[in-house]
Design brief:
By secondary structure, this protein is mainly beta. The chain is built from 1 helix and 7 strands, in the order E-E-H-E-E-E-E-E. The chain has one helix spanning about 45-60; strands at about 35, 40-45, 65, 75, 90-100, 105-110, 130-135.
Length: about 140
């Protein structure tokens, strides 16, 4: 089930600036490991869901996973081969705005089971794998 808001005040949002580093969501709040991003980009709701499924399968459900980002921004798209004018397109997908320093996800492992590889997020399908690093808690 893809992530999307239940209700929004305005269906079509402006693009806004992605400049500057993250100020909120930069500390490890849950679990013992976290994935911190080093680049700025958009993560779609489908990418977040695909990464969640891939990571829980890789962990073989031996730990707990927290997703720290939520796609709350709508991105519009026009149908292909449409002429200019006639207004803004319809909402096409939902994205989460990611800035450098954001913690994307946290995970922990059960103490009575064999440890899960903390680099399990380096799967080929993960959209955030190249520009991110693993942070550890105390």
């Amino acid at each position: 089930m893809p992530l999307l808001p239940k209700r929004v005040k305005y269906r079509k949002t402006q693009r806004r600036s992605r400049a500057h580093d993250a100020t909120r969501g930069t500390t490890l709040a849950f679990g013992s490991f976290g994935l911190q991003t080093l680049e700025r980009h958009w993560l779609t709701n489908i990418q977040i869901e695909a990464a969640r499924v891939a990571l829980t399968r890789n962990m073989k459900r031996k730990g707990k996973l927290w997703i720290r980002v939520f796609p709350d921004k709508s991105v519009t798209a026009r149908p292909p081969e449409t002429r200019m004018g006639k207004g803004k397109g319809a909402p096409d997908k939902w994205v989460a705005v990611i800035r450098p320093g954001n913690i994307l996800l946290n995970w922990t492992v059960c103490p009575n089971r064999p440890p899960v590889n903390p680099c399990a997020w380096r799967l080929p399908n993960c959209p955030w794998a190249p520009g991110s690093s693993v942070v550890t808690g105390n």
